[in-house]
Amino acid sequence: MPDPTAPTLGFLLNDVARLLRKRFEQNAGASGLTRAQWQVLAYLSHAEGISQGGLADILEVEPITLARQVDRLEAADLVERRPHPSDRRIKRLYLRPAALPILGEMRAVGEATRAEALAGLSEEDRERLGELLSTMKNNLVQLCGTSCRQKELAHD
């Protein structure tokens, strides 16, 4: 019989994700960037030229919230806005050259944080964990519907 006091899968996954974010912030503390700014840079490194509205949708933040983050990143010469070729209301986002070394630093911090979180797990267990979580994600993307599927599959 399952232990009724044991955390459910949803709570456990949420706690792990929250603690990973917190530990990443601790490890990246000296960078001067917020986690939200790191997240913008990370997504842009895979989707340069995305519209500001599209990125806000993916990050699940209000467009004005993202606009403020991009304002700060633009002021730091890490991101630039370019006009859409056929719709002047749309701004596309691109990384500036100064962002490249920061992305390298961010990846190193991410790798160190993951290594801390996965300490004590064999390589086989790490691979299996990734496979299991990917299967769960794919199941949920399928169940969420077309718009969710398009957003998520575009960022695998």
Q: Any overview of this molecule?
A:
This protein starts with 8 loop residues before the first helix and ends with a helix. The protein is mainly alpha-helical and 156 residues long.
Write a brief structural summary:
The protein is mainly alpha-helical. The chain has helices at 9-27, 35-46, 52-59, 63-75, 99-117, 123-144, 146-153, and strands at 79-83, 91-95.
Distinctive features:
about 160 residues, mainly alpha, two-stranded antiparallel sheet, 7 helices
| CA(first)-CA(last) distance | 37 Å
Number-wise, the strands total 2
Strand content: 5-15%
The percent range for helix content is: 55-70%
Contiguous low-pLDDT stretches (5 residues minimum) are none
Radius of gyration over all CA atoms, rounded: 18 Å
* Average of the residue pLDDT scores: 89
Strand order of the largest sheet: 1-2
Order of helices and strands: HHHHEEHHH
Output the number of helix runs: 7
Largest pleated sheet: 2 strands, antiparallel
Structural class: mainly alpha
- Shape estimate: globular
Task: Indicate the topology.
Blueprint (H helix, E strand, L loop, with lengths): L8 H19 L7 H12 L5 H8 L3 H13 L3 E5 L7 E5 L3 H19 L5 H22 L1 H8 L3
Antiparallel strand pairs: 1-2
Helix pairs in contact: 1-5, 3-4
